Protein backbone atom coordinates (compact mmCIF):
# COMPACT_ATOMS: atom_id res chain seq x y z
CA UNK A 1 0.00 0.00 0.00
CA UNK A 2 2.86 2.34 0.80
CA UNK A 3 4.22 1.98 -2.76
CA UNK A 4 0.85 2.77 -4.33
CA UNK A 5 0.35 5.73 -1.98
CA UNK A 6 3.76 7.19 -2.87
CA UNK A 7 4.18 6.35 -6.56
CA UNK A 8 0.71 5.48 -7.84
CA UNK A 9 0.07 8.92 -9.31
CA UNK A 10 3.17 8.68 -11.47
CA UNK A 11 2.04 5.26 -12.71
CA UNK A 12 -1.57 6.26 -13.38
CA UNK A 13 -3.11 4.26 -10.55
CA UNK A 14 -4.97 5.38 -7.47
CA UNK A 15 -5.86 4.19 -4.03
CA UNK A 16 -9.18 4.47 -2.24
CA UNK A 17 -9.29 4.43 1.54
CA UNK A 18 -12.43 4.78 3.63
CA UNK A 19 -12.12 6.11 7.16
CA UNK A 20 -13.77 8.39 9.65
CA UNK A 21 -12.41 11.89 10.12
CA UNK A 22 -11.15 10.90 13.58
CA UNK A 23 -9.18 7.98 12.16
CA UNK A 24 -7.48 10.06 9.49
CA UNK A 25 -6.72 12.87 11.94
CA UNK A 26 -4.98 10.44 14.28
CA UNK A 27 -2.91 8.85 11.51
CA UNK A 28 0.56 10.24 11.00
CA UNK A 29 2.74 7.42 9.79
CA UNK A 30 2.38 4.46 7.47
CA UNK A 31 0.58 4.30 4.15
CA UNK A 32 -2.64 5.84 5.49
CA UNK A 33 -0.63 8.84 6.63
CA UNK A 34 0.74 9.17 3.10
CA UNK A 35 -2.80 9.06 1.70
CA UNK A 36 -3.81 11.85 4.09
CA UNK A 37 -0.92 14.07 2.99
CA UNK A 38 -2.06 13.93 -0.67
CA UNK A 39 -5.15 16.01 0.29
CA UNK A 40 -7.37 14.45 -2.35
CA UNK A 41 -10.57 12.58 -1.74
CA UNK A 42 -14.32 12.69 -1.40
CA UNK A 43 -16.30 13.55 1.72
CA UNK A 44 -19.50 11.52 1.74
CA UNK A 45 -21.34 12.94 4.76
CA UNK A 46 -19.28 15.54 6.63
CA UNK A 47 -20.65 16.44 10.04
CA UNK A 48 -18.43 19.39 10.93
CA UNK A 49 -16.48 22.12 9.10
CA UNK A 50 -13.18 20.62 10.25
CA UNK A 51 -13.73 17.41 8.32
CA UNK A 52 -12.69 19.28 5.19
CA UNK A 53 -9.21 19.70 6.68
CA UNK A 54 -8.29 16.34 5.17
CA UNK A 55 -8.77 17.99 1.76
CA UNK A 56 -7.22 21.31 2.78
CA UNK A 57 -10.55 23.20 3.00
CA UNK A 58 -13.24 24.02 5.55
CA UNK A 59 -16.75 22.72 4.86
CA UNK A 60 -19.23 25.63 4.95
CA UNK A 61 -22.08 25.25 7.43
CA UNK A 62 -24.69 25.46 4.67
CA UNK A 63 -23.31 22.20 3.20
CA UNK A 64 -23.58 20.48 6.60
CA UNK A 65 -27.27 21.17 7.15
CA UNK A 66 -29.80 18.53 6.27
CA UNK A 67 -29.43 14.87 5.64
CA UNK A 68 -26.69 13.41 3.44
CA UNK A 69 -27.82 12.67 -0.10
CA UNK A 70 -27.02 9.10 -1.17
CA UNK A 71 -24.85 9.13 -4.27
CA UNK A 72 -23.42 12.60 -3.58
CA UNK A 73 -20.09 13.67 -2.15
CA UNK A 74 -17.87 16.72 -1.88
CA UNK A 75 -14.40 17.08 -3.35
CA UNK A 76 -12.01 19.91 -4.17
CA UNK A 77 -11.85 21.26 -7.71
CA UNK A 78 -8.17 20.97 -8.70
CA UNK A 79 -8.27 24.24 -10.66
CA UNK A 80 -10.25 26.57 -8.38
CA UNK A 81 -9.67 24.92 -5.01
CA UNK A 82 -13.40 25.22 -4.26
CA UNK A 83 -15.56 22.45 -2.85
CA UNK A 84 -17.79 20.91 -5.50
CA UNK A 85 -20.54 18.33 -5.36
CA UNK A 86 -19.89 15.10 -7.26
CA UNK A 87 -21.88 11.99 -8.10
CA UNK A 88 -20.59 8.80 -6.54
CA UNK A 89 -21.87 5.70 -8.34
CA UNK A 90 -22.94 2.73 -6.29
CA UNK A 91 -21.14 -0.41 -7.27
CA UNK A 92 -22.16 -3.88 -6.22
CA UNK A 93 -19.77 -6.77 -6.65
CA UNK A 94 -21.36 -10.00 -7.76
CA UNK A 95 -20.09 -13.46 -6.96
CA UNK A 96 -16.97 -14.05 -9.02
CA UNK A 97 -16.16 -10.34 -9.50
CA UNK A 98 -12.68 -9.37 -8.39
CA UNK A 99 -13.01 -5.65 -8.78
Can you describe this structure?
The protein has two domains: 38 residues, no CATH class; 60 residues, no CATH class. It is 29% helix and 10% strand. The chain has four helices and two strands; from the N terminus they run ααααββ. Strands 1-2 form a two-stranded antiparallel ribbon. The radius of gyration is 15 Å and the shape is globular. It starts with a helix and ends in a 12-residue tail after the last strand.
Defining traits:
99 residues; alpha+beta; 2 domains; two-stranded antiparallel ribbon; 4 helices; 2 strands; 29% helix; globular
Instruction: Name the helicity range.
Output: 25-40%
Give the radius of gyration: 15 Å
Number of domains: 2
Gap between N and C termini, in Å?
Answer: 17 Å
Instruction: Give the strand line-up of the largest sheet.
Output: 1-2
Task: Summarize model confidence as the mean pLDDT.
Answer: 79
Q: What is the N-to-C succession of helices and strands?
A: HHHHEE
Shape: globular
Q: Please report the total strand number as a whole number.
A: 2
- Give the amount of beta strand, in percent: 5-15%
Number of helices: 4
Flag low-confidence runs.
none
Secondary-structure-derived class: alpha+beta
Largest sheet: 2 strands, antiparallel
In short:
With about 100 residues, the protein is of the alpha+beta class.
